[in-house]
Amino acid sequence: MEPELRHLRYFVAVAEELHFGRAAVRLRMAQPPLSQQIRQLEAMIGTPLFVRTSRSVALTPAGEAYLNRCRRVLAAVADDVHEAGRIGCGEQGRFDIGFVSSAIHLGLAGPIRRFRERYPAVHLRLHEAYTARIVERLLNGEVDLGVVRDADDHDDLVGTTFATESFVAVLPTDHPHAGDLAISAAVLRDDPFVFIPRVAGERAYQRNLRPCLEAGYTPRIVQHASSWATMAHLVAAGLGVTIAPASIAAVVPAPVGVLPLTDTEATSEVRILRRRDDDRITSTGFGQQVAP
């Protein structure tokens, strides 16, 4: 037989009290079973740990050495239990967030900073990707939270709205309507478009199309771009025009105009998603921090 944690706890109690009766009270057990457990521990070790007389109890040299080791073992076990609990509720360990790049321009850095201040023991890792890819990784357990734009609904995910944006027209400065104060999507019917790829997410793709579809046409897409910043620069290069969420204004280069869209109520929504069965405080807390 090998000593178990209960043997170590019993031994430490007797060693600190130097009295079997007081140690039994401290351990909330009867004295005879405690004495039996200590004798069992000494038999397993192969040497006495206590010198017992009718009047006193004292540690042997082996007992004194063993007491220090037992305290270290019990402290380490307590630390391990505490750490496992913190990891289980999300207050320690690793936390992965997938995000669309455009969320940064909507102030995502603020909640991320507050999260790191609140949970300094958590190793936060950020992963930039398309909405569709973030949702896939979230469902597969590869990320813990997703900051997504116009994501398709899923029964296993719940979310909090982070931001809702209107759409704008993005035109090169030499476009005939670049000087307008606002513009209808109908005016862009004959222009070539730079657009997000469909693989970014079906709902996101359809939301971006909506102002054009409401105006009665499907845009002629000549180029796809993986980010709004890239799209804005391709517009500046003269490849075409685009319709995008209003936050694209934060990344457009100088030779590009951003105009409010008229004749549409279409909006784009950025949400914070987590798995429905994930009730860790880090997952639910992040959503609460970013709620408007």
Automatic annotation (TrEMBL):
Entry keyword set: DNA-binding, Transcription, Transcription regulation
Domain of life of the native organism: Bacteria
Domain HTH lysR-type: 3-60
InterPro entries documented for this protein: LysR_HTH_N, LysR_subst-bd, WH-like_DNA-bd_sf, WH_DNA-bd_sf
Statement: the UniProt record of this protein carries the keyword Transcription regulation: yes
Keyword Iron belongs to the record: no
Similarity comment text for this entry: Belongs to the LysR transcriptional regulatory family.
Full protein name: LysR substrate-binding domain-containing protein
Originating species: Micromonospora trifolii
